[in-house]
Amino acid sequence: MEPRMGKLVPTVQLLSIGDANVELAFSSIPRMPQFGQKILVPELTLRAAGSATNFALCGASLGAKTGFAGRLAVDSFGEVVLKAFREVGVDTKFLQLVEDASTSVTAAIISENGEGALFVYQGTIAQLEYEALKKCLETNPAPRWVHFAGYFLLESLQGKPVTDLLQLAQSRGATTSLDFGWDPTGWSDEVIEQVFDAIQFIDVFFPNANEVKALTGESSAKKGAKQLLEAGAPTLVVKLGTKGCLLATKKDEVMIPGFDVNVVDTTAAGDVFDAGFAVSMLTGATMGRAAVFANAVAALHVSRPRSQSLFPSLEETSAFLMRHRPLDV
Ligand SMILES: Nc1ncnc2c1ncn2[C@@H]1O[C@H](COP(=O)(O)OP(=O)(O)OP(=O)(O)O)[C@@H](O)[C@H]1O
Ligand SMILES: [Mg+2]
What we know:
CATH superfamily: Ribokinase
Structural class: alpha/beta
Strand order of the largest sheet: 4-1-9-10-11-12-13-14
Order of helices and strands: EEEHEEHEEEHEHEHEHHEEEHHH
Bound molecules: adenosine-5'-triphosphate, magnesium ion
Number of domains: 1
Shape: globular
Largest sheet: 8 strands, mixed
Number of helices: 10
Number of strands: 14
CATH class: Alpha Beta
Distance between the termini: 54 Å
Radius of gyration: 19 Å
Strand content: 15-25%
């Protein structure tokens, strides 16, 4: 019998909530000009960016039915982000599009040795609407995985709103993950308290080693991870750059070594890693396998030139995994 072809409703399995902006990057800059001076720029790229945006673009490149919930203005920068979403098939039905506002823009000035100075114009990101996000988490069917990123730019959601949204996503059966990123204002007691409140409702927490230290005071990722696990997150994946990651649960902690690649540009490595982990778990992998897969997608990403606008696909990552062995630890 022929399978019944009912109306195919594309459902979002992986939902990314958070920041979206356009990134204008001037690369290979020999020196910073003083005010009143001018220097020529050898390399320019303009692309969609933002932690949550990178996560969504990478999730879709890896083949997951991915949606993005964030806020863009109806302007030419918003169009750049929308085009990037369209290109890889990110579902934008949860996007908040507003008139009479400006899409967020980041200008990155990158030196010849890869160091960056960032200018961030927050634009629409700061006013992401809680009620609209709540509605999108209440739609049916609920996404299977909900990821938050770009927390420190999302002024309207900081504190209780994010905690409530995480709780709502969990109550709808979704796995929740969060990557706070680095607090540019310096990790006040209030911010640390907000993180510890949110942790109760995070299934997979994705800090890097510096963030673990800022949150717990521990320079050892393993010791810091223990404190964060006691605070409530059942799984912690601590990103360790070249070394790979530490996968920690209340039962176990395992170092998952990274891959040795020629690094070209590490921008967005953390977001790509998070997306790789989530997509792999959605396909039924164990956490250990998901961590290896995430290290592989991120290693592949950091070894590609900045001009490569697309994130690694599932095929590219599978081919990379066949050719490369993780570093010995
Ligand atoms: N030099 C590298 N070589 C190989 N893999 C890398 C390298 N740098 C990063 N990675 C991979 O990318 C992952 C994430 O990078 P990193 O540890 O820098 O996270 P992060 O600090 O959250 O990044 P971001 O600055 O993007 O927020 C690492 O866990 C690793 O798998
Ligand atoms: Mg990070």
